[in-house]
Amino acid sequence: MAVSVRMDPLLERELELAAKRQGLTKSQFIINAVELALGRKDPYALYQQVMREVAEEPGSEALTLAFAGEPHEPYDTERSRAALIAKLRAKHGLSTD
After folding, report:
1. What angle do CA 70, 74, 76 make, to 5 degrees?
2. pLDDT at residue 74 is higher than 70
3. Where does 23-76 have alpha helices with state H?
4. What is the C-alpha separation between 88 and 44, in angstroms, rounded?
């Protein structure tokens, strides 16, 4: 079924850019937005479904055990940011002031 929607030109331009960034047509983008608004696309429910499917896969225990020793610490963005800034300053000969 075809649906026609009138919107502000600026909003339409923002829609076009957002769809382009995601590699979608405007129609696909709008359909995704409507499905999300209606609760047909719940990211948490999708995550739960994927986790259940992964758990049911043969060999999933071996995969879980393989990554059991991996650190699960949160990513320290401030430390990484400071290190990146220091590296860029050194590369470009800038002082730390």
Report:
1. 120
2. no
3. 26-37, 43-56, 60-66
4. 38
What is the spatial distance between Cα 83 and Cα 89, in angstroms, rounded to a whole number? 10
On whether the CB atoms of residues 51 and 45 are closer than 8 A, the answer is no
In a domain, 19, yes or no: yes
| Number of folded domains that form the chain | 1
Domain span including residue 17 = 8-57
| Residue 95 in domain | no
- The whole-number pLDDT of residue 15 equals 96
Give the mean model confidence (pLDDT) for residues 63-91: 79
CA distance 19 to 86: 36
